[in-house]
Design goal:
The protein is α/β, with parallel strands linked by helices and about 400 residues long. The protein contains eleven helices and 26 strands. The strands form seven sheets. The protein has a five-stranded parallel β-sheet. Strands 9-16-10-11-12 form a five-stranded parallel β-sheet. The chain has a five-stranded antiparallel β-sheet with strand order 22-23-26-25-24. It is globular and about 60 Å long. The protein starts with a strand and ends with a helix.
Amino acid sequence: MKQYVIIGNGAAAVGCIEGIRSVDAKSKITVISKEPHHVYSRPLISYYLEGKTDTERMKYRTADFYEKNGCQVLYGETAVKIDKDAKTVTTDKGTVTPYTSLCVATGSSPFVPPFEGLDMVEKKFSFMTLDDALALEQVITKESRVLIVGAGLIGLKCAEGIAARVGSITVCDLADRVLSSILDSECAAVIQDHLEENGIHFLLSDSAVKFEKNTAFMKSGKTVDFDVLVLAVGVRANTALVKEAGGEVNRGILVGDSMETSIFSIYAAGDCTEGNDISLGARRVLAIMPNAYLQGQTAGVNMAGGKAVFDKAIPMNSIGFFGLHIMSAGTYDGEMTEEQENGSLKRFFVKDGLLKGFILIGKTERAGIYTSLIREKTPLDTIDFESSKKLASNSIFSLETRRKKFGGVV
């Protein structure tokens, strides 16, 4: 019997468990979970603060998931060492677990710049885990002045989550626009306007450089007084375990399409990895939940002796703020065309006859068709792309393609 070990307990770990069980129904699986919680959907922590969900409904799988899949979970233990020669993993509590195959799904951690005076701030938080949300919930009041450092996805979802529960929210960022990693300037301006209409105040092209208790001193010379500080500057992939074991890492753990690392019998999946982005044609960290699951599933199948590849990774984001939905995918490389209708905005980026990326604001229905065009590298001259820009429909594909994709005419 094999012994499988998974370090981490997020979407990638779930994918890995289900991948293993699709091939091997009996061998032991041990999950090392730094957090003391059943696997949950991280994007829902802002909805928890809004009161739109609760800890039970946040679960990514049913309460009996581990039991049904024959998993032992070491809750509240952190893996601190991989011994690739002895094939063991040691935790901070001294537990030593042997493995036949190992999957590292350690995710990422908040990046906190060395701000002067940060240690003087009493009420400071990150916003990446359920425990972060629970801790933040304990201190905010209807009078709280909240300063969020970082206008990316994490910072803005935090702002949305607490908007109705605090007195004011100021978001600052060195970038000149919100969501600078996923939106161009014009689209970002649309989102910023919407957020401002919902009471969020911004200081862009500016950020904190020093703190004195409850005052932030900004790069511009301004000062911002606050009661609660949220640090959402960015994240870094957790690569240390594999690096210290002698594995190849860059910004993330380097993996191939099988999700195996440079160390035999050690795989990696999720936000801690660096793989190939087919829309860019280069390696990068793709910290996105659907990719994490698919990477984990691929790793699990291969760990159990099956054969699987995940070679269609692209960046994707599906988010919403105060009822306004956004979806983006791929890269913004190539000629841009735009469609606007009834308050919705669509931007498409085409290069070498292929759809490379898109941004949708407002109407995001059937965006999976656009994603499929990017993943499959479908030549646009083989479909009715012009009509698809106005209304995504399976009818843009040829009859033969529809039969292959959907098992019949759709």
